[in-house]
Write a structure and sequence with these properties.
The protein has helices at residues 26-29, 35-57, 92-104, 123-132, 148-157, 179-192, 212-222, 244-256, 258-261, 267-272, 315-322, 335-342; strands spanning 4-10, 13-19, 64-67, 109-112, 136-141, 161-165, 196-203, 226-231, 287-290, 295-297, 306-309, 324-326, 352-354, 365-366. With 368 residues, the chain is an alpha/beta fold. The strands form three sheets. It has a nine-stranded mixed beta sheet, with helices on both faces. The protein has a three-stranded mixed beta sheet with strand order 12-13-14. It has a two-stranded antiparallel ribbon with strand order 1-2. A hairpin with a 2-residue loop joins β1 (4-10) and β2 (13-19). It is globular and about 50 Å long. It starts with a strand and ends with a strand.
Length: 368
């Protein structure tokens, strides 16, 4: 069976999904789409296209927000700085207030992050509240806690998108997010999920076998999912160039997903070559990262800036940050911020600058 193509939208980005069933997965990948699943896919695409249209018309609202319902994770990947093993879940009432605040700002896409979101006991209600605001509901998970009944609950809650990162084929000291462990979970998703699933593989520092990324991507496409590949960044989200073998694998994966991937991740070409990017980061405006304490940050790697409560964040703050240049942007590898900022790459030159992490960086400097 050859490749199949269909137009899709992932977290607001338009792309062409390529499905490549293998002999071992054809039965799952080619499972007839039920009327219910087909209708959900169509309505999801309509909502996503509407969100892009709204973003093109107005710059006064966030396009995407990542929100953390708990910092605790059931894994401990050595390269990750976004988890602990002690935190309690954020109380449901507080999470609902934060979701409503994002709705008040007009946020188009709200993605639940972590830690591990599936550890939160009230996750289904959080997802349902996201949908109630009119936003597209996404989630990033390690997938370990997925079972058929849990997937069905996510369907009922209204989840639109799920992303799982798989770092290797066999678990090692760096990461337990391996294809060997998660393959059964992927098959469950292919069988039961009414939401879109993306599998992200990685290359870069700490990954012992770069070739694993190609294997992971092929398996994802074979199951009918979309597939992306990322470059591991350092502890502040900054550039780490690829070695020769890593670059070779990265090129092969991009060939598999060229139509769906390269257009919205072209910035990674410079990263792979150890070069900087000239772009306008809209973090704090188009993209918000909301930590477990309910504070607004530029991204997961620049926590503390601006570091103010979401409850007091206003449209004026969104517009100010939209026009504020971040000094960390040339070496940034954070894909979600790049992709969201791409919507506005053609307009609104930034008039002020800020240097996260520098002494006195909370003060904006007017560019002459």
């Amino acid at each position: 069976m050859g490749r199949r193509f269909c137009v899709c939208v992932r977290d607001g980005s338009i792309y062409l999904r390529v499905t490549m069933p293998s002999a071992s997965t054809t039965a799952i990948a080619s499972r007839p789409m039920s009327a219910k699943r087909r209708w959900k896919a169509v309505t999801r695409k309509v909502r996503e296209l509407a969100s892009i249209g709204s973003a093109l018309v107005s710059t006064g609202h966030p396009y995407m927000a990542h929100i953390v319902p708990m910092r605790r994770c059931n894994l401990a990947c050595t390269y990750c700085n976004e988890f602990d093993d002690v935190s309690d879940p954020v109380p449901l009432e507080e999470m609902l207030r934060r979701i409503d605040d994002l709705g008040r700002l007009g946020t188009s896409v709200i993605t639940i992050s972590g830690g591990e979101p599936l550890l939160h006991p009230d996750l289904d209600q959080i997802i349902a509240r996201i949908r109630k605001t009119g936003a597209i509901a996404g989630m990033i998970t390690n997938g370990y806690l997925l079972m058929p009944d849990r997937i069905e609950r996510l369907n009922k809650a209204g989840l639109d998108h799920m992303q799982i990162s798989i770092d290797n084929v066999m678990p090692d000291a760096v990461s337990k997010k391996s294809l060997k462990v998660l393959d059964k979970k992927l098959q469950m998703l292919a069988e039961h999920a009414d939401f879109h699933v993306n599998i992200n593989s990685v290359v870069g520092g700490g990954i012992a076998n770069p070739q694993d990324a190609l294997t992971v991507s092929q398996r994802a496409l074979g199951l009918g999912f979309s597939s992306t590949i990322g470059i591991i960044h350092d502890g502040s989200g900054q550039l780490k160039p690829l070695g020769e073998s890593e670059r070779g694998v990265w090129d092969k994966v991009r060939q598999l997903t060229r139509r769906s991937y390269s257009r919205f991740n072209h910035f990674q070409e410079a990263i792979a070559n150890g070069k900087t990017n000239d772009w306008r980061c809209r973090a704090g405006g188009r993209y918000l990262y909301i930590c477990e304490f309910g504070l607004v940050h530029y991204c997961s790697q620049q926590r503390g800036y601006p570091g103010v409560p979401l409850s007091g964040y206003q449209t004026a703050d969104v517009k100010r940050e939209f026009l504020t240049e971040k000094s960390c942007s040339p070496n940034c590898t954070i894909s979600c911020v790049h992709q969201v900022s791409y919507i506005d790459h053609w307009r609104a030159p930034q008039q002020t600058t800020i240097t996260p992490g520098a002494s006195g960086s909370s003060e904006l400097v007017q560019i002459q």
